[in-house]
């Protein structure tokens, strides 16, 4: 599972990122931001609306973490945090407002910007909820078939119980 796929949910409103690769020292990490910076672990706490990220860096560097969310049309603002992190492991946290129950951040360093790239950590992209979001295709077919049979039954009942009077033959 990559850092951009939906991670497992450990409960209590927290979502943890899965670890997927290894560096030269056999330390497991989620993803590389650039050649010298890796995300070791991350989680999103939906109750606190906060993302927690643990980095491992081979050198001191500036890391920028930006709230990544779907904005509506027009002007809006988001959250951004820039932090100088030392060589070794460091932790960063950033408040992140969820959109449709999902949240994410983008991460950049001067090196990743020079390379024209960024890293995204996300709980997943949610589909917009409709009144039928929990309904599947079989439910629609069975519901439609039931409605059709009920309407045919009502029509047959009305025809059977209606007084027809005399039959007129048209010549």
From TrEMBL:
One Pfam family, short name: DUF8063
Highest taxon in the source lineage: Archaea
Region (Disordered): 1-27, 75-105
Compositional bias (Polar residues): 15-27
Name of protein: Uncharacterized protein
């Amino acid at each position: 599972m990559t850092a951009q796929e939906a991670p497992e949910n450990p409960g209590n409103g927290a979502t943890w990122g899965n670890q997927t690769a290894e560096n030269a020292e056999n330390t497991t990490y989620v993803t590389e931001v650039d050649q010298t910076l890796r995300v070791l672990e991350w989680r999103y706490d939906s109750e606190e609306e906060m993302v927690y990220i643990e980095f491992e860096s081979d050198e001191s560097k500036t890391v920028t973490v930006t709230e990544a969310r779907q904005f509506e049309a027009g002007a809006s603002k988001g959250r951004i945090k820039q932090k100088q992190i030392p060589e070794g492991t460091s932790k960063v946290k950033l408040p992140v407002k969820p959109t449709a129950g999902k949240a994410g951040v983008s991460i950049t360093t001067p090196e990743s910007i020079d390379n024209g790239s960024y890293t995204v950590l996300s709980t997943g992209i949610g589909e917009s909820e409709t009144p039928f979001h929990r309904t599947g295709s079989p439910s629609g077919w069975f519901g439609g078939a039931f409605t059709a049979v009920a309407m045919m039954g009502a029509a047959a009942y009305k025809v059977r119980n209606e007084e027809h009077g005399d039959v007129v033959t048209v010549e």
